[in-house]
């Protein structure tokens, strides 16, 4: 039985569907109703009809919560009357629940309710049109094997480049940990630490002040009876608890009391280095190629890390941290883009998520290094080693064939592709390869003739909506991720173990995400993980502190969800933008991530100054709104990379045309039957 695309007309901006008389609702489950509010004339049989044993809502992917809201609006009498009459006669009955649905979908931005029509084609019998979903497009990299030893080597390099990003980013947790500290003993006071704390430190301000003694010798508790000794002084220098660490940045530069805010500043200065990477280095990578800029970023990170070892002031330390961040972020971002460009679409999600294990490895190695070395300079030396390894193996990295084709370097691209096929032991069809290269080259040449590629093209029609949404998603994911991660020092228990737990929780998050996005795509899992992370943040404050493990579990759940969201976003961002703008499109929205990470430490400080609920509420609100906004993005699962801005802009329109049902399908013979009865 074949399906028929019913005629439509446009009235007041809505698609009007007619000739639905005697249509069996069971066949409409195969139609796609994107934006339920578009349906003005809906057949009465589309409403739940328990009398016929059909419950339309439960047979679709529409949320049951939505049906719970609509259901009370329909009485049994109205439903039975609707089953016996046409839509036109009972238009107000049909419109009422649709109006409610419209309001809900607009408020919550849930406008992508899609039926699964992949099981049944959509054919127009009258003109032979077929809208059946096409097979996955053949990609350039499929012609050289798609996935093999050549791609795996670049995957290893990408994972290794993410390793120092994680360890350097989180290093301040051990460079400036929470240490017990107190005012230094005067040089002429000869007492033990315990005696000094008991006699020379006021109980209400044990860290930033001490008593003023007239006689510094032989201080005993009975001297506190003297009123002159109860005068306090602000600490000029401090002593620190050295039971866990031999030396830290906190103790070396006295980042305590009125200088404690400099710790948050140092974290934000490090994140500020990301802005240099996202604005300059990614632009250079699109202009001059991935490979040379990778070497430049690696060198900047290595030199800055070495200079930081000789810091003589906090300012010098902060400046070197800025350039370490710029170098390491540019390094891993550009290698990540390179890796995604040389992978076949069907392996892209596995590589895109799997490479994050490099981040987990760097995250987990950091507490181990800190536990073994206990000195911030020795830690920094250990964290610098990956830069040396990456720079020494840089010459083995190939240039991106897609970038070469986009810039007219066809011969170099062919050489690299041939080398890739040989390494993968894959027979290259030269005819297909040259046809694909010719097609790609012509598309780039046509676009180059019309306008010059630049960052402003991210805001062209068809792209600007996605750019803005992805920018916001980066802000929220980084804001919540670093807000939770920076909180490990405030948790009870062993600091090394706490930090390791927050790293371990990322492993199942990446593994689960890998399987989910391969079967469910990118958009829905991204939305669900953001929503779950936001709800977890809201749950932390109401949970009692005793027992301590309850809040710990909820916090770990939040870290799990936001990690999953972050990993999906990395894949999503590279698939949406075209080759000519991919590094910029991947890097520019990361300005939002850096902004979120930049603010996160100070939100914690704001919570200390105002109310503990402020950070958690802020984290939760942003995560929930990000989850809803992500539903507006197009699905990119198994799609070939767009090579030009025009192709990238058309993807959204193509998705809308395929998945938006502004078209409703009914059976042709039922329509003929309804006409014959009239």
UniProtKB/TrEMBL annotation:
Superkingdom of source: Eukaryota
Listed name of the protein: Major facilitator superfamily (MFS) profile domain-containing protein
Domain Major facilitator superfamily (MFS) profile: from-to ranges: 154-638
A GO term, aspect molecular function: transmembrane transporter activity
Organism: Larinioides sclopetarius
InterPro entries for this protein: CRAL-TRIO_dom, CRAL-TRIO_dom_sf, MFS_dom, MFS_sugar_transport-like, MFS_trans_sf
Membrane topology, as annotated: Multi-pass membrane protein
SUPFAM superfamilies: CRAL/TRIO domain, MFS general substrate transporter
GO cellular component, one term: membrane
Residue ranges of the TM segments: 261-285, 292-310, 316-338, 350-371, 377-397, 467-484, 496-517, 524-541, 553-572, 584-603, 615-633
Keywords: Membrane, Transmembrane, Transmembrane helix
Subcellular location: Membrane
Principal location: membrane
Pfam families per the UniProt record, alphabetical: CRAL_TRIO, Sugar_tr
Entries under PROSITE patterns matching the protein: MFS (PS50850)
